[in-house]
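re: the backbone from monday

yeah here it is again, tokenized this time
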């Protein structure tokens, strides 16, 4: 009897150690209840400036400012390289991750819906709930300073989308934007009495899509801790059911020791969790292709950090983070802005496999032969850059025109057959020229519109013209490169022909 009581006591201590090991007090919101984790000073925060001060990053070195009508943050003083600029407590973010198994508000978001949602949708749910709370929300001050109108493409009208002069992107914006409504319909189906309205859901969806951060951190109750608990339960079962005290005590003592080690050094409970989060006020920082701020996730220490880049930050400079290197269609779809001279902008040419029939010696029979191959699927959508077509795309065209052999030799992709090279590049030049003829207006006209007729026009009109102007510039640069390549290939063909005649 005494042995059994000791075993029960040992199991109780073990479970307590294991659970506490997986519950870092500095990560008090990893369970999905971060709204309840906030300390009392956060309960009455109703203004964005109070938020900033309470989060500890509105020092004399930072100030909110507007540049060209866009809100941002400037450095009032200099920062050294790698110097922390912002430190945000982890329990003030609105996050979602795979460790959040239970709905924090089952009457508003059912467990059935919650359990099937990914990390992003969990954040949408939580932000929508906080929005519905109004001033009683712990995040009321932050929410009050968030935009209520968005320039992301899902909010554009049909006429505004036409100004993009990009049917593919307009289609994606129209039908891709319905994903939020489909998700909301699923919420209503599983939670008929939810207090979240469709408008609030759409708003939260857009905020999360355009302002959330994703990262991986150490936290939560790991599978290793669960294994410790299972092992201890197994040892207890052996002791009580099968009367095998020696084996049971070995298991129990071993797992208790493991739990103590875990609590002391965090060996077993360091489970890496992929998380998505809204970071109040941190998202005031604007984007730049060459940011001077770097985001460091120190969630295991209870905070997230923004640190100055390798070159530091000079006083008076606006501070920037990077939203990643991407094309303007992505930036417009997700964030609602463009980079006028985006260095990695691409122009997508569609259905090259069909258009090649007109300009290259590709028979319908051969096209049918390769129609189900990866080659043809690749040519259905080809992205070109200012520097021209990618070598792999040119080779795919060559394979479609010629035969399934290698047309290049050496690392420099030197053509083996100059006549085939000329044929391929001439076909691509013709296809690009045809694409340019489909434009409602040229690059010069877009430049004139931006310079002379922007007064009185909407921001979305300007964004659309900037978007299509950059795409056109990319394709014109690509055309120039292809024309030079075709001329060079033809010169090699002519030279070879002369040599053949002499011989």
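seq for it, each position gets an aa:
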């Amino acid at each position: 009897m005494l042995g059994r009581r000791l075993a029960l006591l040992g199991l109780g201590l073990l479970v307590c150690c294991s659970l506490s090991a997986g519950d870092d007090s500095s990560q008090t919101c990893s369970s999905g209840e971060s709204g309840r984790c906030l300390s009392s000073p956060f309960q009455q925060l109703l203004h964005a400036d109070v938020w900033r001060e309470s989060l500890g990053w509105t020092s004399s070195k930072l100030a909110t400012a507007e540049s060209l009508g866009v809100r941002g943050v400037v450095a009032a003083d200099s920062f050294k390289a790698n110097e922390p600029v912002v430190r945000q407590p982890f329990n003030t973010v609105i996050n979602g991750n795979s460790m959040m198994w239970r709905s924090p508000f089952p009457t508003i978001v059912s467990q059935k819906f919650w359990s099937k949602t990914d990390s992003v949708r969990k954040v949408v749910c939580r932000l929508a709930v906080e929005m519905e709370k109004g001033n009683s929300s712990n995040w009321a001050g932050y929410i009050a300073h968030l935009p209520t109108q968005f320039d992301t493409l899902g909010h554009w009208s049909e006429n505004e989308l036409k100004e993009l002069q990009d049917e593919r992107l307009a289609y994606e914006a129209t039908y891709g934007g319905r994903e939020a409504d489909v998700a909301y319909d699923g919420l209503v189906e599983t939670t008929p009495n939810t207090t979240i309205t469709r408008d609030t859901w759409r708003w939260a969806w857009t905020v999360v899509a355009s302002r959330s951060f994703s990262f991986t951190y150490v936290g939560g109750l790991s599978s290793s801790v669960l294994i410790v608990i299972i092992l201890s339960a197994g040892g207890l079962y052996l002791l009580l059911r099968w009367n095998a005290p020696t084996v049971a005590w070995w298991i129990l003592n071993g797992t208790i020791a493991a739990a103590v080690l875990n609590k002391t050094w965090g060996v077993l409970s360091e489970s890496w969790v992929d998380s998505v989060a809204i970071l109040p006020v941190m998202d005031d920082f604007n984007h730049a292709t060459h940011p001077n701020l770097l985001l460091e996730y120190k969630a295991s220490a209870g905070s997230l950090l923004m640190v100055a880049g390798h070159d530091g930050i000079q006083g008076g400079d606006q501070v920037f983070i990077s939203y990643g290197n991407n094309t303007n269609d992505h930036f417009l779809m997700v964030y609602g802005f463009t980079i006028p001279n985006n260095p990695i902008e691409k122009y997508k040419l569609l259905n090259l496999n069909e258009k090649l029939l007109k300009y290259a010696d590709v028979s319908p029979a051969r096209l049918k032969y390769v129609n189900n191959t990866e080659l043809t699927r690749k040519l259905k959508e080809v992205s070109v850059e200012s520097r021209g077509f990618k070598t792999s795309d040119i080779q795919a065209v060559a394979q479609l025109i010629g035969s399934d052999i290698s047309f290049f030799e050496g690392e420099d992709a030197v053509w083996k057959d100059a006549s085939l090279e000329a044929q391929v590049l001439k076909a691509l030049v013709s296809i690009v020229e045809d694409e340019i003829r489909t434009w409602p207006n040229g690059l010069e006209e877009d430049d004139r519109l931006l310079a002379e007729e922007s007064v009185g026009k909407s921001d979305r009109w300007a964004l659309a013209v900037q978007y299509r102007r950059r795409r056109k510039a990319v394709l014109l640069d690509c055309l120039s490169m292809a024309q030079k390549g075709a001329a060079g290939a033809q010169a090699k063909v002519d030279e070879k022909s002369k040599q053949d005649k002499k011989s």
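The longest helix spans residues 459-502. The chain is about 50% helix and 15% strand.
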